[in-house]
Amino acid sequence: MTMPAGSAAPTGIRVLLADDQELVRAGLRMMVESAQDLTVVGEAASGRQAVRLTREARADVVLMDIRMPDLDGLAATRLITADEDLAGVKVLILTTFEVDEYVFEALRSGAAGFLGKGARRDVLIDAIRTVARGDALLSPAATRGLISRFLAMNEPGPVNHGLLDALTDREREIVALVATGMSNAEIAEHLTLSPLTVKTHANHAMTKLGARDRAQLVVLAYQAGLPAVS
User: Fold this and answer.
1) Which of 12, 15, 3 has its CA nearest to residue 128?
2) What CATH class does 13-137 carry?
3) In what order do the strands lie in the sheet with 38-44?
4) Do 147-223 and 13-137 fall under one CATH topology?
5) 6-34 core/surface letters (b: 16 or more CB in 10 A; e: else)
6) pTM confidence score
7) CATH class of the domain whose range is 147-223
8) Tens of pLDDT along 79-117?
9) Where are the domains positioned within the chain?
10) Which are the contacts of 45, defined by CB distance < 8 A and separation ≥ 6?
11) pLDDT tens digits, residue range 156-178?
C-alpha cells in the first residue's frame, strides 16, 4: 500500500534488540512494541550482527547484551559509538545484575546507560525513551555500585587532576553531583537552582570535556579524582 502524496511516514523510536537468547529477545520485543512510539527494527544474536544491523536498520537505540558470541556487547558498543555515521545511535546495555563487573567498562565504551534484564515493562520503555532523547540512564543504585568498584580497584589508573580545569566552579559542582547518580531535578533541589539551569551547566561541561552524554561525565569525574559530594 502506497502512502498518500504529501503524507509522512510514521515517526517513532527505532529499536534494535541484541541478545544471543531467542527467548529473551522475544520477551523484549513484546514489551518494546507495546508502546506506540517504539518499533523493533531488527534482532541480533551476536555483537557483530548487532553492529551490522544497527547500520542497515537505521536504529535509534540498541538494547545490547554484554555476553554474546562472535563479538561481545562491549566491543560491539565501541564499534557503534566510534562510527561517525552512527553518531545519533544510543546503546543501552542490558545486564543480569545492575552493578556487575562490566558496567564501568560499558560506560567507557560509550554506552548511554544500562538496565537490568529483570526490569519491568514500564521501566524498559522509559529507559529507551530516556536514552533516545540524549539523556544518560544512570540510576543512583548503579552509580553507587560504580563508585564502590572504582574506589576498590587496586590499580584504578593515574588520576588526571587537570582534566576538569576548563570547567567553572559551578560546572564542577554539578559534574560531581551527576557522578553520584542524581537527576537534574534532584541536583536543582540540592543547589536551589532551576532544572533548566542545571541542564545548561551539565551540557556546557559535556561540550568542554568532549563527553557524548552524562554517563561519560561520570567516567571523567572518576578519572579526574573528583571527590564525592555529600
Assistant:
1) 15
2) alpha beta
3) 38-44, 13-18, 61-65, 90-95, 113-116
4) yes
5) eeeeeeebbbbbbbbeeeebebbeebbee
6) 0.68
7) alpha beta
8) 998 898 898 899 998 877 555 566 677 777 788 888 878
9) 13-137, 147-223
10) 18, 19, 20, 22, 25, 68, 69
11) 455 566 778 889 999 999 988 88
